[in-house]
Amino acid sequence: MTYDEIEELANTKRRKKITGRKCAKSIGISEAMISYFFSHKESMTIDNQEKLKNYIEDYPEYILFKVPVKR
User: Residue 47's domain spans which residues?
Assistant: First the structure.
C-alpha cells in the first residue's frame, strides 16, 4: 500500500472508532505491528494488508444525530 492509502485507511479506522486491538485480533497479528504499520515504521505482508483493509472497510459505521421530539 502507498503512504496515502495507509493514511486513508487510518482515517477510516479513526472515524469508525476501531481500536488497534480489534484490528490485531481480527487478522491475527500483534497490536504493536498495527501501530507500526499506521505510523509507517514497518510494513506488513500483502495478505495481512488485504485482511486489514477488508476488516476496516466492512466494519459497521454508527452515526449519531439529533431528532426533534414533539411532546
Answer: 3-58
